[in-house]
Amino acid sequence: MSNSQPHYHEPVKFDALIKRAGGIEPTVCAVAHPCDETSLSAAVQAAELGLFTPILVGPQARILAVAKENDLDITPFELIDTPHSHASAAQAVALVRAGKARLLMKGSLHTDELMHEVVKKDTGLRTARRLSHIFVMDVPTYQEPLFVTDAAINIDPDLLCKADIVQNAIDLHVALGLGEPRVAILSAVEQVNPKIPSTIEAAALCKMAERGQITGGVLDGPLAMDNAVSPEAAKMKGLTSPVAGRAQILVVPDLESGNMLAKNLSFLSGAQAAGIVLGARVPIILTSRADTRHSRLASCALAALYDDHQRNRPVA
Fold it and tell me: Is there a contact between 106 and 284 (Cβ–Cβ < 8 Å)?
């Protein structure tokens, strides 16, 4: 075992990401049910920084009361009155379907409530791609942003779902201007073992990438967590791939492992986490009451930058 100590860098706290997003033409974001200080202030602050122009969707009296109580100026923004959170989610999704908003943001309602409207067959925002959540994490002991997926949407994804999870993460990495990512498909071990299904799926995903079914990234797996992010651990195991020890995207076996990994990095390693859901017609911003101000704004910046890339990328 190495005696070397981890190198700690000063967390950038997403400042560069937020600054970049503030420099593009702001698009419109439908904010579903921003009826508490956390969600309403996030929308107002994002607008002040030029990340997007919000349409506030929710009970008018409640939103006005929260704004007054917290000294938030919402007079520049359109406010659509709804009777309750279910209606707020439905109306926000309808704005996107009508082309009046290009981003969707969760306010003070349950994630399941918003996603229920998003995935509706006839009135939702589904595409041929499976939806998945991507955390973009600033980890003090890691030199570059670390993506973790999926830790919030797909509970026990099968192989085809994992292929979409990988592709969504690659697309975000490229859209943020970070280049072709190194993608580690995680398991408990780095060798294929029929008794551990995630190792088989990892190997299959790598073969799918070789055959062009997943594009834009360099995949390797199965990889255990240590030899995905530690060059020394990878060297000790004799792994010489371009991904081992230098991963930029970590694809977890299931939601439970991903959720625990992301929260361990946040609460035990001092990491900051931003995140969005991709795979729908538009990026979806899911924030948490536990998020810091910077994390919430960084999530908004992720969505804005991804949307800008999608709108301006060359037509094939």
Answer: yes
If pLDDT is split at 50, 70 and 90, which confidence band does 14 have? confident
- pLDDT by residue (tens digit) across 230-256? 999 999 999 989 999 999 999 999 999
Q: How far apart are CA 167 and CA 208, in angstroms?
A: 11
User: pLDDT grade, residue 6 (50/70/90)?
Assistant: low
User: For the chain, which domains are there?
Assistant: 8-126 (3.40.50.10950), 127-279 (3.40.718.10)
What does each C-alpha distance from 92 to 8, 34, 65, 123, 219 come to in angstroms? 41, 11, 20, 11, 36
**Per-residue model confidence (pLDDT) at position 281:** 97
How many whole angstroms separate alpha carbon 274 and alpha carbon 290? Answer: 11
The residue ranges of DSSP E strands in 19-163, in sequence order, are 27-32, 52-58, 78-81, 103-106, 132-138, 146-149
- Helix count and strand count (H, E) for the chain: 11, 11
pLDDT in tens, 95-117: 999 999 999 999 999 999 999 99
Query: Distance (Å, rounded) from C-alpha 62 to C-alpha 15?
Result: 32
pLDDT in tens, 137-154: 999 989 889 999 999 999
Closest CA to 55 of 37, 76, 24: 76
DSSP string over 167-219: HHHHHHHHHTT--SPEEEEE-SSSS--TTSHHHHHHHHHHHHHHTTSS-SSEE
C-beta separation of 67 from 38 below 8 A: no
- Which residue from 274, 189, 273, 203 is spatially nearest to 237, judged by alpha carbons? 189
